[in-house]
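Blinded run. Sample ID left blank on purpose so nobody reads anything into the name before looking at the predicted structure. Input follows.
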Amino acid sequence: MKDHVEFAINQSTLSSLERAVIIHRFGLCGEFEKTLEETAKITSELGVCTAMGVKKVQDRALFKLQDEPLIVEAYKTT
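Blinded prediction complete.
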């Protein structure tokens, strides 16, 4: 299922910042799970420098993903 989710995220309508936050926070695409602070350090060049900023981007991205057809399909196949 993780492969399906990774594919769906890469095909989704997420911005590059939203995609990076989701990948790093949840340990997708070969990355390890990272804390909000660790993700903030990584994404600072994309404009998010604080844990609170990462949390806001994460929440927005997860809201968008809940209706993504490929994500919905990935959960149906499990």
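Unblinding after everyone has recorded impressions. The radius of gyration is 12 Å.
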